[in-house]
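User: I've been trying to design a sequence by hand for this structure and keep getting stuck. Would you show me what you'd pick, starting by listing the structure so we're on the same page?

Assistant: Good idea, let's start from the same input. This is the structure you sent:
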């Protein structure tokens, strides 16, 4: 196990781990078998399929199109949960997919069971190549490139709902504080924010020092120096204890609902992550 860790660390430093992972996943007979139906029939939602390079920019396993599309329905599920906690998605005017990548979640807003008839959909990402693809292929939404640090190109109090999955998992701590403040700035009073992180279900993947830090309520970040770069951000990986999120990231919000991640392989897509459903408090005299 020690030798395996050394090899992995060396590949990460040489930036070869991503290439090795891509070759492994894309050449797998199982992945090729899964992908054939998509190559023949196209995507289940009828929209274009992002190329391999852009899908795997987010996660190497998205070489498998079955995995890429297996998370269909996550946005619908999230909207149903916030509706149970006071939201009326039918009245949303603007929603944002922060860290949209190649549009894996953004495209789900196009085919909801209960469409957001009044809402304009926006997406932002640090990778200009992914944003270029989204602009050319997901014309129902508006996309923009964001810098490594705030601000975003939006007015204060612009959004009713911000979808944010596996973005804070790739940011160093100081950047997380900056970005959560920015998301609070552009959220409407009474607006909702989904924050999905890697929590306690990942505890056994941590080293003993990392585990000790996590259990003390502190954020654990690997390769923080690689965060904020379009070409290396996925090498920066953060693990969030609940106490850190509540005390450091949710200060400007109310936690209206939380569910903790479930162990893999029992978990359905996305269920291995902790989900925090946050709401920006209303000001005195505000009405939803």
């Amino acid at each position: 196990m020690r030798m395996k860790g050394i090899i992995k660390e060396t590949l990460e430093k040489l930036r070869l781990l991503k290439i090795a992972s891509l070759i492994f996943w894309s050449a797998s007979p199982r992945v090729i078998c899964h992908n054939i139906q998509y190559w023949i029939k196209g995507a289940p939602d009828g929209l274009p399929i992002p190329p391999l390079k852009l899908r795997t920019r987010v996660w190497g396993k998205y070489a498998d199109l079955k995995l890429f599309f297996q998370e269909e329905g996550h946005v619908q599920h999230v909207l149903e949960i916030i509706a149970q906690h006071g939201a009326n998605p039918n009245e949303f005017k603007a929603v944002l997919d922060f860290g949209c990548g190649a549009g894996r979640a953004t495209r789900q807003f196009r085919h909801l069971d209960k469409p957001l008839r009044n809402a304009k959909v926006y997406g932002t990402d640090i990778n200009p190549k992914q944003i270029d693809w989204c602009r050319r292929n997901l014309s129902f939404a508006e996309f923009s490139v964001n810098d490594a640090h705030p601000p975003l190109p939006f007015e204060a109090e612009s959004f009713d709902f911000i979808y944010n999955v596996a973005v804070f998992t790739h940011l160093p701590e100081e950047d997380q504080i900056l970005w959560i403040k920015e998301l609070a700035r552009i959220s409407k009073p009474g607006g909702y924010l989904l924050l999905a992180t890697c929590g306690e279900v990942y505890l056994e993947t941590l080293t003993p020092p990392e585990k000790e830090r996590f259990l003390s309520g502190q954020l654990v970040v690997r390769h923080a120096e690689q965060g904020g770069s379009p070409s290396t951000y996925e090498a920066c990986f953060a693990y969030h204890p609940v106490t850190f999120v509540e005390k450091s990231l949710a200060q400007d919000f109310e936690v209206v609902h939380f569910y903790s991640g479930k162990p893999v392989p029992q978990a359905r897509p996305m269920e291995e992550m902790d989900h925090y459903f946050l709401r920006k408090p209303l000001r005195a005299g505000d009405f939803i």
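That's my pick for every position. To get oriented when you compare it with your attempt: The chain has two domains: 2-70, 74-279. The longest helix spans residues 173-186.
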